[in-house]
Amino acid sequence: MLTIGLTGGIGSGKSAAADCFRDLGINVVDADWAARVVVQPGKPALEKIATYFGAGILLENGELDRAKLRQRVFQDEGERTWLEELLHPLIREEIVAALQASASPYAILESPLLIESGQYQLVQRVCVVDVPEEVQLQRAGRRDGNTPEQIRKIMAAQLPRQERLARADDILDNAGDLASLGDQVTELHRKYLQLAKSADD
Ligand code: ADP
């Protein structure tokens, strides 16, 4: 099954582009969704996390306190490594299962850290949603109410724009309006249908 990785920095318009693909009937698997699923109550990973970090890492309703966990691993590299080694294979399994269950002619894996996390190994092509950094700051700020400093911190943990673009097979230029993004997605969709078809032949 042809799988396309859809990535881009914070606020670049990944979700907007993913919605365009969904509107065309394409199955989109969201890596952030997979990362949440594996730590849901009742999943073995959550029990392991609670044993390792203490029950204080859980909210009163038994769900993971993500903000607290982020803070803990931000301060301690050893703990971060432990957590990543636990979660990365599980997230990968979840993504693979969702991709395999896909019934559309090709599938999209939407991931903010597609290249950084190694998830690009699950896809045949990389599609980058690209905007200038000022646009990222504006749109992400408007969406989340974060300050430019907070957004810059997140951007610093992601690949620099040029390095991401260097890994792209296809680029969606999202500096324009949503209609322009939709047109570009429709054009790429035609190309991906062709690629999926020739892979089947
Ligand atoms: P990402 O998923 O990459 O973080 P989003 O798709 O959530 O980015 O887009 C960030 C914000 O910018 C959202 O509020 C979205 O509605 C808005 N947005 C995305 N693309 C455009 C565009 N072309 N024009 C105007 N606003 C946009």
Notable characteristics:
201 residues, alpha/beta, 9 helices, 5 strands, globular, binds adenosine-5'-diphosphate
Number of domains: 1
Q: What is the count of helical runs? A: 9
Quickly name the level 1 CATH class.
Alpha Beta
Number of strands: 5
List SSEs in N-to-C order: EHEHHHHEEHHHEH
The helicity comes to: 55-70%
Structural class: alpha/beta
CATH architecture: 3-Layer(aba) Sandwich
Radius of gyration from CA coordinates: 18 Å
- Report the uncertain regions: none
Strands of the largest sheet, in order across it? 2-3-1-4-5
Instruction: Tell me, briefly, the overall form.
Output: globular
Strand content: 5-15%
Instruction: Determine the N-to-C terminus distance.
Output: 12 Å
Bound molecules: adenosine-5'-diphosphate
Largest sheet: 5 strands, parallel
* CATH fold-level name: Rossmann fold
Task: Walk me through the structure.
- The protein has 201 residues and is of the alpha/beta class.
- Strands 2-3-1-4-5 form a five-stranded parallel beta sheet, sandwiched between helices.
- It has helices at residues 14-23, 31-37, 44-53, 66-75, 77-100, 133-144, 148-156, 161-166, 178-200, and strands at residues 3-7, 27-30, 107-110, 125-130, 170-173.
- It has a single domain (3-200), classed as Rossmann fold.
- α1 (14-23) packs across α9 and α2 packs across α5 (77-100).
- The chain is globular, with a radius of gyration of 18 Å.
- The mean pLDDT is 96.
- Helices cover 55% and strands 11% of the residues.
- It is built from nine helices and five strands, in the order βαβααααββαααβα.
- The longest helix has 24 residues, at 77-100.
- Bound molecules: adenosine-5'-diphosphate.
